[in-house]
């Protein structure tokens, strides 16, 4: 388990991290979200000992040492490989630095290239690959030594939906074999889909922390999705409805000022008759993210 | 053990990448190409120019002409035998000129016709030949006795008395000095840029974050520097093998063998001066400058600044190189003694003193220990800061980096 307890980091006058705490148990995925400059990369750099910090970060109940390097897989925010090497040389070099034997890694390369649908052979020069394929090779370098702790900084950035799915599958495979995984993303859909828990940072402070459902439930079931022949104006006049947003003809999204108004709205809308859709939900992660960012700017 | 293995992985990667590069190939082959080109051009030039550099010797006295040609077969075109033929050949630029040898009433005379004056060498040959021949004619005409002839041939004598071996030893010192100083300078200039470039090219790239999540910065830095030093050693070994191969080839050629035999004492003296503590100084000097170049490379804000980063190191090397010039003939001067202890400068000045034989073994070792301690401190200091320097990708310049307080 990765455990981060009360870490603080200051760059000059800027408090980059302020009392950040969370755990990532083995076999779980934690999503780290927040605006640019919120402190996500600084958190990763603290875990990897790239910078000094106050507080405590432990891995399997001990402080990180050089001995733990081999069990970490790290994908930085910007992609970067050694352009003059071939795919094979690059993968073998980085895997050997992770304590793997070239003899063990070489036979696996073709499988990994196929798994990520990399356009190129093991003998292709890195410089000859497209940006997307270089990104996939970098992902292979991060995963091929089967790390127990995966740290992925914006892993989905720049990937098309097909390649994003390949990555998601690889992340879920790593989770399946018991790896603790922490990744940052601006795409709330990916976070919703993959994460067991999430942490939102705003200017170095933890503003949200918990499982996806816990976080969403904190905001109450204020979103109501209905399909009805009522007009938007008529819906807006219902008690407890703060805002009406048409989705499709006959389909509306109602934002409630009070979640408790749901049953009364249901009774009014149905009046004892069948309606196609009535779904009361908490806000989506995307909406929560926007709300929290908005609070910071208020 | 694991850290050591990772250091060697970095060393091997750095070494193989440099060795396989075209720039290394051309760097190694460059001097050989230059040498071959120079020899080739000289050979072609000498051959193509030979006919127009020759002179013809003509005249009415066949014996006089024949004796001159017999004594000086080179530089003379013996096929031209008449003044008319010589004039024609000169006009066609097939001759540099022609010499007309005549005798009138036992008085020898030589007239040279050409577009340029005779070279000093040929002029001396002609003058010498005429003097000797005229002397013989004079002796005959004067009807002198053998005793009188011997008396007239008496000349004053100048003899130099030089202590045995000193001349050769001094020349060996001079050659050794230039060899070692030039070697340090060339290696330094070449590899300071390569090292700074190698380090700086990685700065600002995220590959460093991946590497530092795999091994310690110190382990990586030591691996990198060791790789570069192995490249330097490879180049030196290639040159040593090349030199040895040339030497072996030269010994198999009779005329070169004789030449080497003539200078054997000098060659032995130079080798003796080089293959001692000086070689250690050469290596320590290269290590010191390589470390400094690596540090400079790590200080740049972006890879394009690498050439600028190497400049302070190159300048320091040049200062050391040129500072030796005024003291070549004054090796007991106080500045020489002081500079032979200062790291970076001692790489130039202590070998000078060792070659000159004006320094004791204790002093040599003291200077060497100072240099080694500097290597250790520099390695530790840079290794300690390396991660912070390499992961910084801001736009601060070298001086801001140097003087900025490390804020945790």
TrEMBL record, chain A:
GO terms for molecular function: ATP binding. It comes from the Bacteria. Residues 2-228 form the ABC transporter domain. The keyword Cell inner membrane does not apply. Keywords: ATP-binding, Nucleotide-binding, Transport. InterPro entries: AAA+_ATPase, ABC_transporter-like_ATP-bd, ABC_transporter-like_CS, ABC_Transporter_VariousFunc, DrrA1/2-like_C, P-loop_NTPase. Signal peptide: none annotated. The keyword Transport applies. This is ABC transporter ATP-binding protein. It comes from Levilactobacillus spicheri. The lineage of its organism: Bacteria, Bacillati, Bacillota, Bacilli, Lactobacillales.
